[in-house]
Amino acid sequence: MQIGEATMRPVIEQERVAFPATVCMTELTADDIAPHASWLHPHHIDPASGDLQMSHHAWLLEVNGKRIVVDPCVGNGRHRPGVAAYDMLDTPWLERLKVLGAAPESIDYVFCTHLHVDHVGWNVRAKDGRMVPTFPNARYLIPRVENEFWSLDLKGELPGFHVFNSGIYAECILPVIEAGLADFVEEGALIAECLRLIDAAGHTPGHMAAVLESVGEGAVLCGDAIHHPIQVLYPERDGPQYDSPQAGRTRRKLLDLCADRDYWLAPGHFMAPHVCKVRREGAGYAMEWPDPQG
Fold first, then answer.
1. Full-model pTM
2. What is the SS3 assignment for 185-202?
3. I want to staple 251 with a disulfide (CB 3.0 to 4.6 A). Which of 22, 104, 172, 235 is the partner?
């Protein structure tokens, strides 16, 4: 899709992955879903199981002569016993990127909103028995606070439930740093003159979002700050986040930004069409989906 003079396209790894609703919020009842069931079922929520349906995709941006990949998914052939949907994948993700006209060598920037397993995998790929950067000519943009937190894993010091992500830093981040391709970014960083990075902490300690702005139009690429449409409807519901109250405030901030400026919301896990507009509705929000006819 066009955002002003920029192009923004999803690069799909997996299109329909089911997760229990508890991955997003501690409690989600039938009464919560009922007013919205006509559009949530079955595309976004399985009515039989109650599971949330999620896409896993990166974003490819082409703007001002630069190519940017945001959140490069899980990767192939990775041993992920803790999450069956991620274990030993064999997908044509890299080929899909090439079909869009973007060979790995042509990518200028890779931005990871945060450093969870499903947002950093294709940072690297296996070659000659070791992991090497997939995008050898790119600058990898890593939120500084995220890097400081997840690098604790190298010393075995990850706190609490974060151990599910153990090993990911050494596999998917450290090779990029050792290759001299990493830049540690903070709020206010501006990429290719129109991609502005903002704080979006809560889901993880240093989660960031990217605001794409071009010729009066915009999109907020929010990673996992908002996983699923149900979190637009109930943005402050408690859930398994690093800091759940902060995650709720971040969702409100991002939704307000989209509503105030008529920007697209572009998360990392919304099912097709993967983006929506956000409108205020009473004290909350409603979503408007793009016309499938363009």
1. 0.96
2. ECCCCEECCCEEEEECCC
3. 235
